[in-house]
Amino acid sequence: MSFGQKIDFSKLEAMKPRSIGPANMSGRVTAIAVVNSSPEIIYAGSASGGLWKSESGGIAWEPIFDGNLALSIGAVAVSQKNPNIVWAGTGEGNPRNSLTGGYGVYRSLDAGKTWKLMGLEKTRNVHRIIIDPNDPNTVYIGAIGSPWGDHKERGVYKTTNGGETWDHILYVDEKTGVGDMVMDPSNPNKILVNMWQHRREPWFFTSGGPSSGLYMTVDGGKNWTKQSAKDNGIPEGDLGRMGLAFATNNPNRVYALIEAKENALYRSDDGGFKWEMINNGNDIGNRPFYYFEIYVDPKNENRVYSIFTNVHRSEDGGKSFENIIPRNLIHVDNHALYINPDDPKYMILGNDGGMAITRDMGKKWQFVENLPLGQFYHINVDNEMPYNVYGGLQDNGTYTGPAYTWKSDGIRNDYFFTIGGGDGFDVMADPDDSRYGYSQSQQGNVGRYDKLTGSSKRIKPTSDDPKVKLRFNWNSAMAQDPFDNSTIYFGSQFVHKSTNKGDSWTIISPDLTTNDTTKQNQDKSGGLTIDATGAENHTTLLVIEPSAVEKGVLWAGSDDGYIHVTRDGGATWTNVSKNLKGVPAGSWVNQIKASRYNKGEAVAVINNYRRFDFKPYLMRTKDYGKTWTAIASENDVFGYALSFIQDPVEPKLMFFGTEHGLYVSIDEAKTWTKFENGYPSVSTMDLVIQERESDLVIGTFGRAIYVLDDIKPLRVLAARGQKSVTESAVTAIDASTSYMVSTRAASGPANPGNATFEGENRQSGAAVIKFFAKKPETPAGGGRGAGAAAPQPQARQGGGQGGGGRGGRGGVGGGTNIPRGPQAKIEIFDLSGTLVRTLSASINEGLNSVSWRYDENPPEGTIQPDLPPGVPAEFASFFRRGGAPALPGAYTFKVTIGDQSDEGKIEIQMDPRDTYNMNSLIARRDLLREVGVLTTDISTLSSKITKDMESVDKVLEALKTKRGPEANALKTKSEAVKKEMKELSDAIGSGGGFRFGGGSDSDVVPLNSKVTGLSRTISGSFDAPGAADRKDLGDFNNEFKSLQSKVDAWYAANWDAYLAAVKKVDFSPIGG
């Protein structure tokens, strides 16, 4: 193995993760833009899931920003003069504790197909973009900046050349950024801006200060006026965030929600020069730091919308408001609203639960259920078949659902269901019985749930000492003991241990935090508007990690930088934080992963972005924390550290999640390579490996859940070395266990249309054989299936189980095609060494994937049909014939390319949900073998007639240029012969079709259709065939013999005479 192996993912294109959603809870939508002249074109920006586009009025959506460095969208704007011009500002402008940062502003000149970074990378968070309605090259950027530290890249930027250069036209100080920015719809040189002083710390938030203010320019930003209480009527004293809006139909009417000592709605009737307070009630809004947005109906200056936790509307110019959306109808916590300027009844709302659309001014709402924007804090799995995924989400509770299904179509939204409320965090299935488990929400609220009944028992630890107040993080520590299924751990400032699944708790540690009381004033957090929700709780434990290789060893990490370890089950603890050289004291210990291989070894995932330090800290110890070594740096990865996992099978294989993507190492962290094969640059919050199936399950903060099926190819690269593998002619990979299963129809609507989300399903009905290959320069040997007259196909894949991008209804999973070019031959043997199946595949450089649908080789003489015109290569396997089903058991496979070969193992098991009888499977196989022989005989006979009918057609075509009595007589005879041959062909069947009865020419069911139906009937069950099946086969064999005799008799009586008649016309397109 060479030192330092950057992975060449171009040779791993067959490894792409599946996006499984779900989208039923969606996620935070922060920005909306619509092409007013084509209102079916919608752009939706999300807090951490990228930018999405719909060209169907919100029915179907596509992500259009995934190839860029950051997926947090704070603002999106489209030029109404030239809708091909679209701008996106990265870094959301809602500075809660879980906000995500960005990396500059981007421009598209082709309606979102491609993007170019136009600078301003250090702004970190962009909240507003305004494009001059008369000049698309003139653009204003409202940079709110990062709430985590002081920096000068805040305020208003302007370009007049499409972003090639920028002028910083409004700047106050390093603490103050744009809270809102609006343009007078009648005068593009007149702009109102709220400059907002705010600061977030890990333990506190402050909104407002002397640097905040309301600014106006009337000359396109050359000069600005800061408004005051004396001159303009705005509140005195420190100000905070504001929400601003002009009335389109009457631009002299302007509204301003102003955070101050007393929050209130102000109104101006002279274009924003003079203001009057018109409402200071609770109905105008709450939580200004998170949402303080106001919008005006473009045709009615007195109809005003204030969106915050709820959506309120005023019909009297803001004097009074009423809630227009019942709380249980659409998700709360709203951030963006689009009102169509020509039809104000048409509105689009963005909130923490996604997006909703109304076309009747809010009377009825449609939830957009196909935007998978879930923000997962934690991810976990169980060991069911198929296994389930669990996770907790920002503002959307805890959910569970299948990683794949044995149903048709994709993974539908309603396959996922909630098992806990609130802001969801860690969730663990009970290893004794995954019907039960533990689900956590904010501030240490944890319950033991029952998935079947929906009940939940509160098991939150309490303090036995009334003088000791327990401190729980927003996202508290929770862990399952690896040695005792009844023992779990939970974290406050202490480690709590339960040996009875949470019914009672014992504290087994001292306070493992700094216990800095200056960082425990969360009840005063918020600044001008107190906002004490537990999001800033500090000096608490974030992680508890028991060792799986050494009983009694536990690691604990805190939000204020402490790491402790105990080697005696909690009797004594050692603080090893001082040994973390190069890591700033007080950093956030996000995860600790104890080694599955070595005692005393662990990896700590640490970040410090909450104090304006965006470097990744990934530290490894091999001596219980006495010394630590950095195993990643900002030169290796982009984004601060969030998650890590080491493969439990191959120690050199590691995965590292950052704020901006997923990284992989195959050399034990010497080098890291970004994984971009179908995976976006999304916040990668948590990682877990489902060990039975070797799947990497990824919890993202913005794009819900991804599953990378079968990481064995990466294990092979790590174990053998990338160069050794990729430069070998062929390297076989032992296949994952595959299951012969019966599949059901999808639950829910039979034909759901385009407006629903379906996660990409794993293919079923086939075993996947994988191998690395070096593509030969010249065609290699191998190739055709045993006894086949044409190249053997890959196996049929999924048959409707597989999934495409949105679930792939009826799709075909990855990578099989019509063999062409250099070929690999794949031979599958049972344990006795008997050849069972031969497949062939075109060779891709690197990783190859071929599917075997559990069938034997077809009977000798089987004619493989030609593909119908226009059939894509990936569907070839639907039209190729295999043999009878193989039996469950262990097999080996051999991959041969030229004169080089390698072998692997594969195991086929029966559906674990049911019992089966091997004798029944053998009887089923044997009868299907007989059916296969009959099918081959039918195809052979049918093909001969078809070929000869084509010859008759050639005669008829040639006769079009002939004249005379002999030609006329031959034409009449040819038409009669063709008719008689067609009657024979119809009775037999074409050999490629299936007809249940009836048809344009005959109501007789062809023999081929009868036999095909019998094959499907027998194959549709794993039971032994019944007496009726055997009788049908006997009847069909007799019918075939009768047809064969009839065909033979017809040829004896007619064909030679017809050929002689053709020769008399002095041409012979048939040939004698």
UniProtKB/TrEMBL annotation:
Annotated keywords: Repeat
Low complexity: bias regions: 787-796
Keyword Nucleotidyltransferase applies: no
Pfam families, per database record: Sortilin-Vps10 (PF15902)
Bias kind Gly residues: ranges: 797-816
Signal peptide span: none
A single GO BP: xyloglucan metabolic process
Entry keyword Zinc: no
Organism domain of life: Bacteria
Region (Disordered): 433-464, 779-821
Xref: SUPFAM superfamilies: Oligoxyloglucan reducing end-specific cellobiohydrolase
PANTHER family membership: EXO-ALPHA-SIALIDASE, XYLOGLUCANASE (EUROFUNG)
Protein's name in the database: Sortilin N-terminal domain-containing protein
